[in-house]
Prior knowledge:
Elements: H1 18-23, H2 25-36, E1 39-44, E2 47-52, H3 55-62, E3 69-70, H4 73-83, H5 92-102, H6 108-112, H7 115-127, E4 134-136, H8 137-154, H9 159-181, H10 193-219, H11 226-232, H12 243-256, H13 259-274, H14 276-290, H15 297-301, H16 304-316, E5 323-327, E6 331-333, E7 336-338, E8 343-346, H17 348-352, H18 371-374, H19 395-410, E9 425-427, E10 431-433, E11 438-440, H20 448-452
Parallel strand pairs: 2-8
Antiparallel strand pairs: 1-2, 3-5, 4-11, 5-8, 6-7, 9-10
The protein binds protoporphyrin IX containing FE.
The site of protoporphyrin IX containing FE (HEM) has 22 residues, from helix 12, helix 13 and helix 19.
Amino acid sequence: MTAPLPPGPRGDLLLGSTLDFKEHPLHYIKYLHDAYGDVVRFRVGPSYWYLIAHPDHIWDAMTRRADVFLKPQVAKRLWDKFLGDGLLTTEGDAWKRLHKLVMPAFHRKRIAAYSEVMTAFSHRMVDAWAAGERRDFDEDMVQLTLEIVAKTLFDADVQEGAEVVGEAMHVIQREMIEHIHMPVPVPRWWPSARNKRKLKAIADMEGVVREVIDARRASLEDHGDLLSMLLLAKDENGEGLNDREVRDQAMTIFFAGHETTAHAMTWMWYLLARHPKVTERLVADIDRVTGGEPMTLAHLKELPYLEQCVKESMRILPSVWVFMKEPTEDVEVGGFLIPKGSQVMISPYVTQHDARWFPSPETFDPDRFEKERAKSIPAGAYIPFSGGQRICLGKSFAMMEAQLVIGSLLQRVVPSVPVDYKLSMKAELSNHPDGGMPVDIVFRDAPHEAVAK
Ligand code: HEM
């Protein structure tokens, strides 16, 4: 292949761009795109990474060349003890089999059954809030999504277990990030305090998952939740998932479906607080359609503007800021060579902030996603859930959850973020507000002075 290597910064002689990238990954890759174009090469530690940002190239990698752009080997190694052979990390026939077995659990009809939990838990959360208090909204959303996944995946009577899982998830994620950020990573088998902490957290989480799987296998009862679906799933040969496979899928779905949705909802609340006109229109819609009754799945069909607001929030502040691919052969992208085995970054944040596809990209404008207007967005430009065959399995679940939770909150609470709060994104495993999101609790039926405070 004779194509040249893509342009990019020379960086530090020893460290390349490692320090700039680690200091603020999101700002740095956005800068790379602005400075060097749609295909960029930069060095992190000893290896070269590649950013591809043009929708055509992204779409091509996710669809036509999906069998060449696979999940990075390093991710599989990094996650193996935690996620095992889960849907997120497997490839080829193993992934195809799992996908076929697990897909029905995410079928629209199946997911519809969870809508009541989403609405009820949102109201339960608001019931515990007091007028005038300042809360960390992100923390509340993380707790809420944890409860929703725990209920829909594990069923209600494992509230305690859900707490253990939540705590373990925090430790695992923190340790993973530290591991990625170490200039010379400590081997995963080394009995360091850090590795021990991670292994203990994985064992704690696994303990809860195993207990539930064992109990459920013994009862053979269909609880109507995701775990029952996983246990009852059968492939065309009548083969189901074994305990190890169920464990891996349960851990994966818990991990993938928890904080991603929480941060997406936090960002949306922030954007609504800063755009009262949008909020006014949205609240009027919700009030008209629901008549003050609790939100249901049926209401969502009549609330296109709510869906537009969710989509626009996920465009401007996507919670998954990057996903990685690794080509299994030398590939040419936009006239440049990306060598086999390189780390290729696709960033929803970078591409969704490109003025060529989203004019005035920093403007929060939910009408971009109005049915007719949205047709002009090129395939591969709007990718908060990735795309192609490896598109997020929980997309419908997450979209429904975001609409029902935010819709239910708007029925009772006015989005209010302190005027002096300065937005600060922290791009770790997912993109979340650095230091949390302070929100003042102002109920809609509160006296005018309270709302104006
Ligand atoms: C706003 C919320 C969410 C966002 C932004 C999101 C985003 C994504 C993205 C970008 C991927 C591809 C990752 C990659 O290629 O490395 C993915 C995969 C996945 N997501 Fe989500 N996700 C969300 C919620 C959920 C939920 C609620 C669940 C489950 C309950 C879930 C389950 C999964 C699974 C199982 C995969 C792996 C799919 C496969 O490779 O076949 N996600 N998600």
